[in-house]
Amino acid sequence: MSDEWQIVYYAANPIEAQLLKGMLESENINVSMNENSMIGGVGELPADAIETALKVSSQQYTEARKLLDNYENSEQQAIYCPHCKEQNFSNFEVCWNCGKALF
């Protein structure tokens, strides 16, 4: 049986795609994503031009979809890093900006 790759999610932008790729990989799900070089044109391009597709193997699709459903349905509240004051989501343990622990 061949292992086909399926699009499991369209991230709004490459930054969200990288974060979700890391989340899925931390759960031992292999992820492929397109490199999106269109981000430099933000403001002049339609909003969907920087969407970034995440792909997983068909064997891991269901597990990945459950994790992404949880991501989409979770109420993410903003918290601020005590070190650099940058806004992060409440499910982050490390600040995306400075890399220091949030708690």
Automatic annotation (TrEMBL):
Stored InterPro entries: DUF2007 (IPR018551)
Segments forming domain DUF2007: 5-71
Pfam families referenced in this protein's UniProt entry, alphabetically: DUF2007
Source organism superkingdom: Bacteria
Name of the protein: Putative signal transducing protein
